[in-house]
Amino acid sequence: MSPRFFALLACCLALLVLFPGRVGGTPSTPAADRPKAQEPVMVEMLRLAVPTTLHDAWLNAEVEVWKPWLEQQQGYLGRDLYWDPQEEQAYVLIRWRSRQKWKAVTDEEVAAVQARFVAAINQAAAEDAADPIPLMAASQWLLLASEVPRDTWGSS
What we know:
Elements: H1 3-18, E1 42-49, H2 55-71, E2 76-84, E3 89-96, H3 99-103, H4 107-125, E4 135-142
Antiparallel strand pairs: 1-3, 1-4, 2-3
Helix pairs in contact: 2-4
Keywords: Signal
Signal peptide: 1-25
Protein name: TIGR03792 family protein
């Protein structure tokens, strides 16, 4: 998917977040009049440079290092990994129960896991790079809807 697609998606999401009451012609209710609801699901979006030569090492390190650690975090709901072979970029979308739960994870904890992640990639690729899979961008989104067609995963 092209960078234009993700820029357009981000703009659409921003409009939905900024003007939620305008979708479908329903008038917006002032925040003070709305019932207190659970904080919306947050999506942490990471864009990574993943060259074809490191694709398998990256994917294995994601599964072996980040996945078990994330599953132990309070508020973690799941994640999706995408890879664009033409651009040699990956998108990691991590869902959190709330922004508060996500931000409760300390930078020190993330740095320790990132060090293990880098070591796993370097070991698999027989390299010694300081940052073999650099972070290109990070942002946060509110999850408004999630739909997967019934036949997508081969269900009958």
